[in-house]
Amino acid sequence: MSSAKHLKTLSEDELGDFFDSFDLVFCDCDGVVWYPLRDFIPGSAEALSHLELLGKQVTFVTNNSISSVKEHIEKFEKQGNLKIDEHQIVHPAQTICDHLRSINFQGLIYCLATPPFKELLVAAGFRLTEDSGTGIIRSLKDLHDAIFSGDSVDAVIIDVDFNLSAAKLMRAHVQLQNPKCLFLAGAADALIPFGKGEIIGPGAFIDVVSQSVGRQPTALGKPGEDLRRLLLDRHPEIPPSRVLFVGDSLASDIGFARASGYQTLLVLTGGTKLEDVQRLPADHPQMPDYLADCLGQIAPTSAPKNPESSNSDSTHLT
Phi/psi of residue 34, each to 5°? Predict the structure, then answer.
């Protein structure tokens, strides 16, 4: 049975205690602030404005590398009339760029990711190798060319790649047999909400490569351990217990946040239904501290009690 407290059941004093309990908010975007490929979820812009009014720091932690950091900022401006700075967006491509800069990386990269992800790496001054071969495997020669004909690389990066193929994974495996080749991962969701259900996420493919080469990547997207440490280091002056993490995924958001010692708020406008929470035992590591029908319920103005759910038409990375 769920032990999470629903915001709509809290008294005025309890709500006051809730807001007084945190100084920093880490907030997911897809399924929390906006519906994937659609508009802002009703009440979310007002909720974010209310947090700003209360003096809370807000950072958006997204796994959505289909959209660039710039596109995220533009969406906040156009749909929510919100001014969000680049440093407030924690995005897998950006965290990987920051990591590569921190180690003064100068080598060649083989990147399995979306075009916006790759464009950000190139714009940051990093060199990417192209896929080798024709891209269509009709013979063993085609397979050999796809795997072995390209340049040797110094890093392999895996994120979301909707054009992923067995040959690409095989090439990544071959490159990573060199122990000096870096192995980096962005978004590592095992499953992604899509349509009326879920599809395999990048985490499954990352695991295939990890098992084949016998080593784990530096994981700089949710729910990666390296991203968890990065977020903790980002605000050393704020104790984890004074941080609220808002998300829509039990695994990628709530479990990730609880492992860091953050307070957690699960909204039901994305990939998780109330029944999913109710099935969890009270001491489950993915049990949220708080529940809300939507992000708008944290604002003083009334928000829709049951906003249109993206569960029925969703495609998003948390």
Answer: -140, 160
